């Protein structure tokens, strides 16, 4: 993690009619940081992420992602970031190789670069033996790590991950977080939403959303100290009860 800001947000707000889904949130994210965006389902974290990755325009407020404006430069933002959703965004009827080639093409990689990235991903994930198998036949943990690797096929500076570990067992989740650590060590910024409070312990800093607002933001250790608790679950419960 460095002192270089790669995401800057000021009073970002999203309304749907009279309902305020995201209420004037302000925060910064730094290069190489694993930034956890935590909250219960419906807290507004996914809506906030969509504004940052160019999928939804803010009602008010402003922000930049990789130096690009979240209101006026959404197409450029989409080119500069990686994105992984809970459903992994893989085509299950295509092979491992075909998925990598497909997404490499979407991001405008040359045929030579796609071949290089395919070899790199297969080597790193130890998937050479199943490269020609359809993704639907792979174990869930392999699908998850493949989707993460593909989200970075174009070497983005920032990767947004929306509930990437939903529905997988604790062991697979821990293995997946090891892959996140490796990406962050290379200077990549990871912005991850989750409702698993134990995953906050894996993050450099954590923002906790409650009813569309950021109610707490700091390192996991400092938040536990601030709220006089031993776990992030207890921090969250105290925030919700207030």
From TrEMBL:
Q: Could you say which residues form the signal peptide? A: none
What's a single GO MF annotation on this record?
ATP hydrolysis activity
Protein localization: Membrane
Where does it mainly reside? membrane
Q: What do the Gene Ontology cellular component annotations say?
A: membrane
Q: Where is the ABC transporter domain?
A: 7-236
Keywords per UniProt: ATP-binding, Hydrolase, Membrane, Nucleotide-binding, Transmembrane, Transmembrane helix, Transport
State the annotated membrane topology for this chain.
Multi-pass membrane protein
Q: Which InterPro entries match?
A: AAA+_ATPase, ABC_transporter-like_ATP-bd, P-loop_NTPase
Q: Which domain of life is it from?
A: Bacteria
| PROSITE patterns noted in UniProt | ABC_TRANSPORTER_2
| KW Glycosyltransferase (keyword) present | no
EC number, UniProt record? 3.6.3.17
* Keyword tRNA processing tagged: no
For this protein, the record's PANTHER family field holds:
ABC TRANSPORTER G FAMILY MEMBER 20 ISOFORM X1, ATP-BINDING CASSETTE, SUB-FAMILY H, MEMBER 1
Return the protein name. Monosaccharide-transporting ATPase
Question: What is the species listed in this Swiss-Prot or TrEMBL entry?
Answer: Flagellimonas maritima
**Species classification:** Bacteria, Pseudomonadati, Bacteroidota, Flavobacteriia, Flavobacteriales
């Amino acid at each position: 993690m460095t002192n270089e800001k790669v995401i800057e947000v000021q009073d970002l707000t999203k309304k749907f009619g009279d309902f305020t889904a995201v209420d004037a949130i302000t925060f910064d994210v730094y290069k190489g940081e694993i930034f956890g965006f935590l909250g219960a389902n419906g807290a507004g974290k996914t809506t906030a992420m969509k504004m940052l990755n160019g999928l939804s325009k803010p009602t008010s407020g402003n922000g930049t992602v990789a130096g690009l404006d979240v209101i006026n430069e959404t197409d450029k933002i989409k080119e500069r970031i990686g994105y992984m959703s809970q459903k992994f965004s893989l085509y299950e009827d295509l092979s491992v190789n075909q998925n990598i080639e497909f997404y490499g093409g979407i991001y405008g990689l040359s045929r030579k670069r796609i071949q290089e990235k395919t070899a790199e991903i297969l080597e790193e994930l130890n998937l050479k033996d199943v490269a020609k198998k359809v993704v639907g036949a792979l174990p869930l943990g392999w699908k998850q790590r493949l989707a993460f690797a593909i989200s970075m096929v174009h070497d983005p500076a920032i990767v947004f991950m929306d509930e990437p570990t939903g529905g997988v067992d604790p062991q697979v989740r821990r293995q997946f977080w090891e892959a996140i650590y490796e990406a962050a060590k290379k200077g990549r910024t990871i912005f991850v939403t989750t409702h698993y409070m134990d995953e906050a312990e894996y993050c450099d800093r954590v923002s906790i959303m409650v009813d569309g607002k950021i109610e707490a933001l700091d390192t996991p250790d400092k938040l536990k100290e601030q709220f006089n608790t031993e776990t992030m679950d207890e921090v969250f419960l105290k925030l919700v009860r207030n």
